[in-house]
Amino acid sequence: MIRNLAAGQAGMTSNVFLIDGERTVLVDVGAGFDVVDAAREHVNAIDAVVLTHTHPDHVGNLDAVTEAFGVDVWGYDPDQKGVDHAIDDGETVQLGDHAYEAIHTPGHKNDHVCLYAPASGVLFAGDLVFANGGFGRTDLAEGDRPTLIESIERLYSRVEGNLTEIHVGHGPSVETNPLQDVELALQAARMGA
User: Fold this and answer.
1) In whole angstroms, how far apart are CA 161 and each of 142, 149, 177?
2) Average pLDDT over the chain, rounded to whole?
3) How do residues 93-113 score in pLDDT, each as one tens digit?
4) What's the pLDDT tens digit per position in 150-168?
5) For the chain, what is the domain count?
6) What CA–CA distance (Å, rounded) separates 103 from 122?
7) Domain containing 87 — which CATH number?
């Protein structure tokens, strides 16, 4: 089961997804709210944290989570503060009961990855794409619109034909026609390039 622990939170936080099952994992940890208590409402233990990228709104609660649950943290760049283990492009990562493929998707931030489960069609998109054709900012450090467009194109080619839902870094998840939202994000990003 996938739950957004940040649903209803005010302030500058990312979504925080708790995926329980064989390997209970948090995808991103958010910032500025008690994510530890939110997680403990559903599970007693967490096996790992996986980060889509290391912007402060996605990692602000990292110290609290690692201290409370004694977990290691996986992300694309182990040189980033708090990241214990690297996830390489194309590597398989177990989230809950499913195997997810890590897809390196820079453009919003150099260490950005999406996580895609081909068997179920579920995608954790971080801040690459959002509902209704939104896409990640490129005006922050490490942001680059042409690189972001290439990443959306790469993601689209990987998930085309088998995308059932997208869990995004901000805003609502997409469970109806999710590929259309990726297409719209690609079109919108190209228009501003």
Assistant:
1) 31, 20, 11
2) 97
3) 999 999 999 999 999 999 999
4) 999 999 999 998 999 999 9
5) 1
6) 13
7) 3.60.15.10
